[in-house]
## 1
Amino acid sequence: MPTTTRVAKLDDIEPGTAKSFEVGRVRVCVVRIGDDVYAVNDRCSHEDYSLSDGEVWEDEREIECWKHGSTFSLETGEPQSLPATKPVPVYEARVEDGEIVVEVR
């Protein structure tokens, strides 16, 4: 059963940054690029480190794991660089009335 949660106001996340939120039992990394928002699981698939602590690559629509440098597509969750070889889950994220809404299935 999907869990839908309003996690923050859009203005609470600076463009080009990420923040971590709990949606149900899942820790989600929410990334803002311009007025677009993306949501991926907040744990690197290579090792158990928070992706929301990493650098956002706006032009590439990727986030980099701060510990070992793997990057992940914010659109597909696929790793774009080693050492990660497994994707991270991607969740639906949208802005409704100025608030970020994330849906985890």
## 2
Amino acid sequence: MTKGQSLLLGLAVLALGAGGYWAFAATGFEGFSAGIAASAVLTLLVLVWTGSYLFRAVTGSMTYMQQRRDYRQAYDAYTDAELLKRFEALSPEEQARLLAETGSASEPGPSDPIGSQASEQQA
């Protein structure tokens, strides 16, 4: 949020308070009662908004954080698929040599997607 947007948000909250005062005055509240009611509603709105922000921040469901999570999953899936495609394009001798160099040939496990997929293809 830029400084200009922050100022506009502040003016919007101020206008909302003034509009609330006039709305309560129009419905029959008098003077201070309309001001107190408008202030109470505005305070409740700000508290709910702040609470929802804190909840999203604590649970990690902020928009930016979710976008990063989604991007990382898509990136990992793409790179895994690309590496697997390149590995499968190698000759069996080159695959065996590469697996021997990386140490994956002796212990293909669930944490090693290329080694486990290569062993599944051999079976």
